[in-house]
Amino acid sequence: MNGETTKKSTTYSVPIGPVHRALKEPVMFTFQMEGELVVSVDFAPGNAHRGCEWMGMRRNPVQILYLSERICGICGIVHSLTFALAVEQIADIEVPLRADYIRTIMLELERIQSHLLWAGVAAHELGFDSLFYLTWKVREQSLDLLENIAGTRVHYGMIQIGGVRRDISDDKRPAIEQCLAYYRGLLDKMKTVFLDDSTMRMRCRGHGILSYRDAQLLCAVGPTARASGVAMDVRHDYPFCAYGDLDVHPILPPVEFGKPQGDVYDRITVRLLEIGQSIDIIQQCLDNLPVGEILWEKKLPKLLLTLKKAQGEAIGRVEAPRGECMHYVRMDGNEAPASWKVKASSYSNLMSWIPMFKGEQLADIPIIVESIDPCISCTDRVTIIRNGSAADLTKEDLTRLSREKTRMLSQC
Asked: Measured between alpha carbons, how far is 271 from 222 in angstroms, rounded to an integer?
């Protein structure tokens, strides 16, 4: 027709999910691809539910502490503390000052090990397995210290309604000081290997961009929001535990192009800088650790009786390694709460993926997924549907594509 030809669309779908290791809970992604580039993304959450809240509403608050800690294996103390803060508001329980400082120390140790775990996973997705092994090796120091304090490396069982279950005695201080000195001496090296490597810059700078406006509109939290220039941090904005007594401020990426880029590189930068901030916060807590009790009520039956009489509702808010975590609790004078609702930080950050993926290559999907530090179990494959036929694309295939791009860029 007048010499014109109709161009056939080359767009095809790449479904990922409904279970994928980058998600807090099972989510079905559908990528619309134009060749190797992502044109648009859609996802549908809500494919499964573990029933933690349902089980919690059939237990007393002390029992719920241990259940809530198992919502996440990496930042478990965040959930038990957030729940405890809500219950303590309802029951009008005043936490001893020493317990608040110990809670803060545990939170920041957990932030260090969580950020190091994430850094290793990010390096692995980019094909830098030697950096992955190094990062997880140095992470062991924080896990060993957590075990020294709490008796276990995961699910510490430290939080009690009205305080903490274990004290930080004077004989534990040398181990904490030694761990902090270890990370102080290592932090500059970690910044160098992550931020100064030319290939790392090519893979991360300018990719997975979340603008300042999008971060606000999509209600992003934690390092994901701060990397886009949004200066928000619950520890600073709504201080809890001992943070009101400490020098804490939101960490933003250094301005390199007039403003934060909000890309994968900036999200790496923020987390590495936050490790240094956590070291300083723990040191402040040690230097100013008050003397006194660590529990509002030592006798468990008396505590349970007080909680059984409590009535009202409250929200607990804690700055988790991934961002703001919230627990809503309502109690009506019975042994178990009348309502318990959890909003984890990963849930808030999922929508940030939509603008991050647009215009990126298929090989960039793994590192962009990991850049918000999502929390979920693993998947083993996705399926490509092209021209009506399906083909399996395994998780190993995605990793291979990501590493091939890294090798290609490193040879340029």
From this structure: 10
What is the CA 105 to chain-centroid distance, rounded? Answer: 17
The Cα diameter of the chain in Å comes to 90
CA distance 102 to 241: 9
CA proximity to 308, closest of 328, 336, 288: 336
CATH of 52-347, one of 1.10.150.130, 1.10.3720.10, 1.10.645.10, 3.40.50.720: 1.10.645.10
How many helices (H) and strands (E) the chain has is answered by 16, 10
DSSP state of 162: T
Angle between helices 173-195 and 264-287 (to 10 degrees): 160
Q: Rounded CA gap, 292 and 171, in Å?
A: 17
State which amino acid sits at residue 253: P
- The model carries a pTM of 0.85
Rounded Cα–Cα distance for residues 355 and 339 (Å)? 35
Using CA atoms, how far apart are residues 116 and 119, in angstroms rounded to an integer? Answer: 5
Contact 343, 358 (CB under 8 A): no
Instruction: Answer whether 305's CB lies under 8 Å from 333's CB.
Output: no
Contact 367, 202 (CB under 8 A): no
∠ CA 216-218-223, rounded to 5°: 65
Query: With contact defined as beta carbons under 8 Å apart, do 177 and 170 qualify?
Result: no
The CATH 1.10.645.10 domain(s) of the chain lie at 52-347
Report CA-CA distances (Å) from 201 to 93, 106, 120, 226, 257.
Answer: 49, 33, 16, 19, 14
Ordered per-residue pLDDT tens for the chain, 412 residues: 444 444 556 788 877 767 655 444 566 778 888 888 888 887 766 665 667 888 888 999 999 999 999 888 788 899 999 999 999 999 999 999 999 999 999 999 999 999 999 999 888 888 888 899 999 999 999 999 999 999 988 888 999 999 999 999 999 999 999 999 999 999 999 999 999 988 888 889 989 999 999 999 999 999 999 999 999 999 999 999 999 999 899 999 987 666 888 999 999 999 999 999 999 999 999 999 999 999 999 999 999 999 999 999 999 999 999 999 999 999 999 999 999 998 888 888 888 888 998 888 878 887 888 888 877 533 323 344 455 554 555 556 767 776 777 777 667 6
DSSP SS3 for 330: strand
